[in-house]
């Protein structure tokens, strides 16, 4: 047994407590091991022992020492004793820390601390992790909404709200950076850089467009899909049809309009909608701009971001692509488990594109009655050698006047698309009863990137408003672009289908759960989409490009910042890439 010797006791001859003030201490021991600490009468000492924190930290492997160091701190680093007072930050210098007896310490009671009713909102943290229940407006109202009632004790929602269940590698989310949609060469020169907050202040009122010409054939929409519910779901079928989506410069009709000098700016509704909704975009995109004389052409790249549909782009925790493997460490584990590969951003985008095309092909009636409607001219992209049937699609070429004064000559020619018509709503050739058909898709409400979406099979019929509100929050940019495209095409209605996986772990089989109809102008008001702001952004970009000399340029949205940049690029940029890919990329064959 270790020996123990009593220290020297300095008696106080005055009869008071502690050593006498007249006792002579050696100077080198006068303030030994005593740190400087400012004093304030309002200092809070805190608890002597916090057994709740001790039991929690011990079960997580932290031990009593971790509880001692974190004494007085609540969840998310908040102090339970109130705000820190002056000088109390140095109180830990006088704290006692266990050194040797902690390895054998254990606690018998394995029950968790009693749940406390939260106050305020847990803004997005619980619902963004795939919680099965979402509070009002996308917030989890502290403690409510759990499956066990008001307290929510013992349910998965409570665990998510307290941060106990996190997404996979959640600590790396803030450190991940997205790659640009196009490889920016060192030879490119930055001409302009515009922040989104400057674009949000632009306004331009544009009059109704002028109809130039129409092409294609459209079929009647099948109204039986409006009666589909979660109890009478229909399988999404694979329909073999051809639908063309060529870029602006490859459109033979636009080339004819250019030769007639109908306008001086040419583009398509898909490219134009991205510009008009640029301030809502999160993912990167790029637009190739060519100036020839006084004419501007807005083009897309083959295989670029305009050929696919995004999923949950505006969610608080959007789907992530796996980080590329480290070539220096071949034994490193993949960034995403194999079971979650189907829920990555790229996989979900391809799945959503497949769903949108097949839903549009399936929901029209190809065998009369009612009979299909032929526009003024046949499909301009369908060659005589083609044998596969065409999809229902009509092209309307429209001219918008973007001039502010009478002296300005800014005429924008746009190729717009419609997907069908409603029988009995008037003559579709005159622009009556036209519809655009789109689809929202559900993948797995419990996976990372679901954005707190409720289960559609249980909520779509009874709480459709909650489902729509969540989709408007998570897919704000996508829905805004769809709405702008419908407005540009002059469609009377938008048909939006709700499509889910037959099995959350299988991304090849899908079912149609419901279909809704809405007027584009009404939906734009619900989404807070300002067409005047969109036209202001378009006019600003046009003015920016009209100031530069003839040549080729690329407008790039920064992948990680709300900024767009205009680059000057060599004339042969993307030319070899397009030749290698071939002209077959212009058509979407499903």
Please describe what this structure looks like.
This protein is an alpha+beta fold and 590 residues long. It has three domains: 35-114, no CATH class; 121-166, no CATH class; 189-321 and 340-582, no CATH class. The chain has 13 helices and 21 strands. The strands form five sheets. It has a ten-stranded mixed sheet with strand order 3-20-19-9-10-8-14-13-4-12. Strands 6-18-17-16-15 form a five-stranded mixed sheet. A hairpin with a 2-residue loop joins strand 17 and strand 18 (506-518). Helix 1 crosses helix 2 (63-69), helix 6 (269-276) crosses helix 12 and helix 10 runs antiparallel to helix 11. It is extended and about 115 Å long. The termini are far apart. The model is unreliable at 53-89, 116-165 and 578-590 (pLDDT under 50). InterPro entries: eIF3d. Residues 135-155 have a biased composition (Gly residues). Component of the eukaryotic translation initiation factor 3 (eIF-3) complex. Belongs to the eIF-3 subunit D family.
Brief digest:
This is Eukaryotic translation initiation factor 3 subunit D. The protein has 590 residues and is α+β, with helices and mostly antiparallel strands.
Structural class: alpha+beta
What count of domains describes the coordinates? Answer: 3
Total helix count?
A: 13
> How many strands appear in the DSSP assignment?
21
Query: Distance between the terminal alpha carbons, to the nearest Å?
Result: 84 Å
Q: Identify the quaternary structure here.
A: single chain
- The backbone outline, from C-alpha atoms, is extended
Strand content: 15-25%
Low-confidence stretches: 53-89, 116-165, 578-590
| Average pLDDT taken over every residue | 78
Subcellular location: Cytoplasm
Keywords: Cytoplasm, Initiation factor, Protein biosynthesis, RNA-binding
Pfam families: eIF-3_zeta (PF05091)
InterPro entries: eIF3d (IPR007783)
């Amino acid at each position: 047994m270790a020996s123990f010797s009593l220290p020297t006791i300095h008696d106080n001859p005055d009869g008071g407590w502690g050593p006498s003030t007249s006792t002579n201490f050696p100077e080198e021991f006068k303030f030994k091991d005593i740190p400087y600490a400012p004093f304030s009468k309002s200092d809070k000492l805190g608890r002597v022992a916090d057994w709740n924190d001790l039991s929690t930290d011990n079960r997580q492997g932290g031990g009593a020492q971790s509880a001692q160091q974190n004494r007085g701190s609540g969840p998310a680093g908040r102090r339970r004793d109130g705000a820190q007072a002056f000088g109390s930050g140095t109180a830990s210098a006088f704290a006692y820390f266990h050194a040797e007896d902690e390895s054998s310490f254990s606690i018998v009671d394995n029950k968790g601390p009693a749940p406390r009713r939260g106050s305020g909102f847990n803004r997005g943290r619980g619902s963004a992790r795939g919680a099965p229940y979402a509070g009002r407006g996308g917030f989890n109202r502290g403690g409510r909404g759990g499956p066990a009632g008001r307290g929510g004790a013992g349910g998965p929602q409570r665990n998510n709200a307290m941060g106990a269940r996190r997404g996979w590698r959640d600590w790396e989310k803030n450190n991940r950076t997205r790659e640009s949609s196009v490889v920016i060469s060192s030879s490119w020169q930055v001409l302009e850089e515009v922040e989104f907050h400057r674009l949000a202040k632009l306004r331009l009122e544009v009059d109704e467009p002028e109809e130039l010409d129409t092409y294609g054939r459209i079929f009647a929409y099948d109204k039986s899909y409006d009666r589909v519910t979660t109890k009478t779901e229909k399988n999404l079928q694979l329909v073999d049809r051809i639908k063309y989506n060529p870029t602006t410069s490859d459109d033979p009709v636009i080339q004819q309009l250019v030769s007639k000098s109908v306008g001086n700016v040419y583009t398509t509704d898909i490219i134009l909608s991205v510009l008009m909704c640029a301030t809502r975009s999160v993912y990167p995109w790029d637009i190739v701009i060519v100036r020839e004389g006084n004419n501007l052409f807005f083009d897309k790249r083959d295989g670029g971001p305009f050929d696919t549909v995004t999923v949950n782009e505006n969610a608080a925790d959007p789907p992530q692509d796996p980080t590329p493997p480290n070539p220096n460490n071949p034994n490193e584990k993949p960034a995403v488990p194999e079971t979650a590969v189907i829920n990555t951003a790229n996989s979900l985008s391809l799945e959503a594109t497949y769903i949108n095309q097949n839903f549009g092909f399936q929901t029209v009636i190809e065998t009369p009655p009612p009979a299909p409607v032929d526009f003024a001219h046949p499909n301009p992209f369908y060659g005589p050698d083609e044998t596969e049937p065409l999809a229902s699609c009509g092209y309307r070429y429209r001219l918008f006047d973007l001039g502010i004064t009478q002296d300005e000559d800014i005429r924008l020619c746009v190729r717009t698309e419609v997907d069908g018509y409603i029988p009995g709503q008037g003559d579709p050739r005159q622009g009556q009863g036209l519809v655009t058909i789109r689809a929202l898709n559900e993948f797995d409400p419990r996976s990372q990137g679901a954005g707190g979406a409720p289960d559609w099979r249980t909520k779509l019929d009874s709480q459709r408003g909650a489902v729509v509100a969540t989709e408007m929050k998570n897919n704000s940019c996508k829905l805004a672009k769809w709405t702008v495209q419908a407005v540009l095409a002059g469609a009377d209605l938008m048909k939006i289908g709700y499509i889910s996986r037959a099995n959350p772990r299988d991304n090849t089989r899908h079912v149609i759960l419901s279909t809704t109809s809405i007027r584009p102008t009404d939906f734009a008001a619900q989404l807070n989409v300002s067409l005047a702001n969109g036209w202001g952004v378009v006019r600003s970009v046009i003015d920016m490009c009209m100031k530069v000399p003839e040549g080729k340029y690329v407008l790039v949205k920064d992948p990680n910042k709300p900024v767009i940049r205009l680059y000057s690029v060599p004339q042969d940029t993307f030319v070899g890439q397009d030749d290698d890919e071939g002209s077959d990329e212009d058509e979407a064959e499903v």
